[in-house]
Amino acid sequence: MHNKTIAVGKYLVTPLTRLIGANAYAASVSVRQGMHDRVFRLLPSFTSETQALSYALDQGRLMVTHNQLL
To answer: Are 48 and 35 in contact (CB under 8 A)?
Structure first.
């Protein structure tokens, strides 16, 4: 699993994946600010790790830019 952390304003967004079955990947995203880290599990599942990573990164970026971290 290769993760790509990006900076979005004052946050670090890291997409995560986990193999959950034959050709099924779960997507999660970590949003970190300083010592505080929140991890969100996302739906749906994906047939490739690349798709799951891309989805997680997009969702994390949207959460930060739309102030949805409360």
So the answer is: no
